[in-house]
Amino acid sequence: MKGRRSGKAAAAPFAMAGASEMGVGGVEDPRQVKQVRELRRLVPCRREPCGLGELFQEAASHIEDLQVQVNLMRMLLDKLSEE
Predict the structure, then answer these.
(1) pLDDT tens digits for 68-77?
(2) Interval 5-21 mean pLDDT
(3) For 43-47, which contacts have Cβ atoms below 8 Å and span 24 or more sequence positions?
(4) Which of 5, 11, 35, 50 lies 20 to 30 Å (CA to CA) from residue 75?
């Protein structure tokens, strides 16, 4: 299922604590930095650090993968419960 993900690297890497794409005028919003850190923890990224745009693409692909897995498990459960 990971084959759907694009191999393109983001132009500007987003460091774990960094804000190169966050904040305005060099000012970081600590809430956004914390949210990005949490998203990085939850979403497997093929390379570290990946850019913020790539992280969002990876998150979308990961969500789709999880949805497929849940649907497959539901189908298996339905089949097994019929017996």
Answers:
(1) 999 999 999 9
(2) 41
(3) 46/5, 47/9
(4) 5
CA dist 35 and 18 (Å) reads 12
Measured CA to CA, the distance from residue 80 to residue 83 in angstroms comes to 6
| pLDDT tens sequence across 49-75 | 678 888 899 999 999 999 999 999 999
- HSE-up of residue 15 (Cα within 13 Å, Cβ side): 5
pLDDT of residue 3 exceeding 80, the answer is no
17: which residues sit within 8 A by CB, 6+ positions away?
A: 33, 37
